[in-house]
Fold these 4 entries.
Entry 1:
Amino acid sequence: MLLVTPCAGCHIVGVEMKDLPVVDDRVAAAKLNQFFDEVIRGLALPQQHTGRSGSPDSCGNDSDVEYFSNGDYSPYQLVIFSRIEGVPRTDILPALRRLKVFAESSGWAISKFGPSGSKPEINELSGMDPSSGYGFTIDALYEQGAIAFSVGSPCLLDPRDSRAKRGGRSSRGTREQPGAD
């Protein structure tokens, strides 16, 4: 069984909801896809990823979430999960090292590079871009000849969120929705 957890995103301890960035989900999705592409570029493997899957998730406690009539909610986080399969065991660690070097040279912070669980070998790399709050977690699956990973956005407020109207930080590209809750 493969378990991949979301990364850097929705850690909001000590952050007030009104201080979260206000970002339209389409803008956040475009930024997340760009970040995903940078992580893929950093791994520099000839194998293709198996596709992108994921969905928005709520952030914070249930009492922090504001729901809209169309089923959307705020605050939210976007996460993408993917895998790269058919990677020879001997190519997995070098790919993680390449991504680590790429991430550090891009100014990203590395939060973990080492073993995970009871395995002695390096099988996890996690980090984030502190300028955007977008982050990643890479899991080396040596026995399966694969790399599994997730990339995620930070916790964001929807422009329709009542807290956004009281002073949340706005991001370019937000949209107003006439008649939206």
Entry 2:
Amino acid sequence: MLNFIVPEPHPIAEVDRTRGYITAVSHHLHAADVEVVAVWLDPMNPRDATFVIRDSTRPNSPQGLVWNEWEGWFRGEFGSGRQGERTKLKNSVHLGGGKLPKPEVVAVHYALGTTAPIDVEREAKIARNIDAYLERWPVPALSGC
């Protein structure tokens, strides 16, 4: 059984507002049997988050899944990074789906290695107030799956 890993609270409130969304993505990755070995929230401008993922088909090459509020989700080989610095991915590919796709969509596209189309109308609404959309995923009171 895989461990369910969630991001730690971030000391900057504006960055921490992303934690509920990132926790929901972690939950859906876990449900899709994706082995997350680390996840953290990162600096601002843009706010972002990183997942480090163990891929059994590439045991010596950790994978990365990175979100930022300006561009959305990218996957690739984890190059470098830690909380407080920008993560670098090698051979990164945009997952599609816009800046804030639903967590279950992120997990499915990561697990299947596919990309999602962008819903232009939804994207325009999100761009006007991304924090309002982030509030749809509150931080759970208890960690665990």
Entry 3:
Amino acid sequence: MTEYTAHSAHGSGSVARAYRIGTWVHVSSKERGRVASTALETAEARAFARTLLALADEIDGGEAKEEPKRAPKVGDRVRVTLDDEDIRTGEYVGKVGVLQVDHGAGSGNRYRVKFGDGSGLHGDRVNGTWNVRDVEVVDPEPATPDTRPKVGDRLRVTQKDAWSCPVNAGDIITVVDTRYDSTYGADIVKFDVDGDSFRWCIPLTAVEPLEDTPEPLAPWEREILASPGRSPRARFVEEAKALLADVDEDEAPALIKLAQFLADGDA
């Protein structure tokens, strides 16, 4: 027999019970040995139960209602809840990835999920893909800036003949196009080779950023910038005068005057 029991909040030992006998719902209460019982028809019992819920909601505002789960869509970050029921069952349950393909309702393994950076083969649990029966949407990861190369960036090749490209390790290429987050595999950049009309593709795993470093200062430039006293521009003017010492005397005044003008009169 199904029975529900509630105890008095005042700790007096009073007990309320609800249970079924035949086609009736019985509600009884017991206090100090005395029992009172009422038999209710099903409709009356439901109305009584709804009244109890309404009274409780008036006190604490009601139970928090769980929002309905959103149906996953391609591009969502998802967690696998049911994987392939025939092959490697259970290996992917709980893993989080990005929903890559939705084959539609009625498909056995409806969803294809990409894990990691997607550079691996189908079946690679770290960076590959897998078809699964069901997934649930999870909160997206905090947004991070996209640091992948963009058109115009210069990159250094780290692998000789990567993807059969005519390159050696250490070669410098310039990005002319990109293909990221594709369903076909790894993230790639495209580049041109002088004298070749073919546009070559190379994966990001075979290149690295090329950090442009400024030309080092000449010793006299470092000395001028490090010396105390006058402004850097004025010190450059002094250096210019020394460099122009052997210039034709008819030209030197005009050049020095120009240098003084560039120094805003600090010379």
Entry 4:
Amino acid sequence: MSGQESNTTGRELRISVTEEVYEQLELLAADHQVPAEEYAARMIADDVARARFLTGAREFITENADYFVERFGPRSAGGQAA
């Protein structure tokens, strides 16, 4: 999990999970020596950061795909093969 600090100024989010999910969350949190609520908040923050990164990566690829193919793609029949 990234970051060790707790965000006490953030927004509150209430969610419902099954007993089985909460028990697993408690076990994972205990492994990191933090309360289950803090562990869940870290997991959500990490997932949001990962999604933001992947969205940026997709946008970068889309914007630069043509240049990449031109620069590094297979050569024409008369040129060198990649």
